[in-house]
Sequence to fold (440 residues):
Amino acid sequence: MNHQRPQIVHVALGSNEGDRDAHLQRAVDRLAQVPGVQVRRVSSVRETAFVGDGPAQGPYRNAVVELACSLPPHALFACCKQIEAEAGRQLPAPRNHPRPLDIDIVFFGDDVVDTRDLVIPHLRWHERDFVRQPLVELGVDVAAKRRWSGPEVIEAPEAMSARSLQWRTGGCVIGIVPTMGSLHAGHRRLMEIARAECDRVIATIFVNPLQFGPKEDFTAYPRDLAGDLAVCRQAGVDAVFAPSVAQMYEPAFCSHVAVGAAAEGLEGAVRPGHFAGVATVVARLFAIAQPTRGYFGEKDAQQLAVIRRMTRDLGFPIRIVPCATVREPDGLAMSSRNAYLGAADRAASTVLARALRSAREAFRRGERDRDRLLQRARTIIANEPRAGLDYLELRSEEDLAELPPGPIASGRMLVAARFIDGVRPVRLLDNLSLDGADEA
Ligand code: AMP
Fold:
């Protein structure tokens, strides 16, 4: 079956045995003879030393050919294997041995092929200069192709540091989006904002044991790496840093970031040690990835305040970028924990956004008294018996400092409540600036 329209296809050629340039030229000529294939352009030929773990062998000659191809990917792949065999290549080929001809399909239009014998885009094409440079020469936007090919997944902190150093040396602005995975549209928005503002975007996925208390849901926290990678790919993330707990914290690990006033009250009062755990892991992520900018959600307003403070106090040269809370259509702030709400609690959970929005409406209409604004929101929550209120407070916009009773000029209202009819009890957080400029 032919494709309706010809696809633009890039194939990489390599040879390190026999008359290498003659093998490359014959491959181009043979591709041009395949019915349904037209050779559009050929890059210049480059010489590359052999790198790899095979037997010692001579250097390669490499080039990339651009085709217009109306065959399906597997049909073109079969032709490539045939042309390799005609050049005298032993098939099945021993891995990393010298070869007269190697033909790899790098891109096949926007097709993604993931079968046992054929993977397109070709794995790790972007790590190979002898593929990347000819693509650039042929006018391919390799940065866009790189993003489209999906993020690179990095597990070792040393590998993350090395990649980041390479990017910084190349003059890139690097954005980091730290997450605990189980990604939703709120996380995705952070990545999209970073994508728009930075040359390279790192998303980190790490469920950090240090920020969970002994009775909290560390082991039960939802994990879904495959789904997370799909979200990162859609958002155009360049690298996903997903270390294991052992890789982040060696057995002898014993240095922690102590956090002061910014971590007191609100979540800090309910979850002792939580923000010290958050600050420690974020400091470690900053040190490993050395980003230029860090993207954090206003959804976790106190966490944002703690990280801003920690970044200034410890002197990280990183700009912290706050991102507005993304909500479900009915107002519930998106959270990985929403999945655990039972149906009745899910319906009741909108009470938090309703209470905050009601206070904001009153503020907009001219109500300025701190306690009357709080009372208004508190009454709405009290009318929802499924919500167990942990706290409801009005704090300063800049650093979440306590506001004295009486009139306020601006402020942020923060709420936390428990819902208990689902698979397990769920604590939900929400907050809203009374000026109302912060909804995504
Ligand atoms: P988490 O994976 O819950 O630790 O969150 C990772 C980052 O995403 C944090 O900066 C959160 O504040 C942010 N985030 C979580 N939920 C939302 C949301 N609904 N809207 C915007 N940002 C969010």
Remarks:
- The chain has a mean pLDDT of 93.
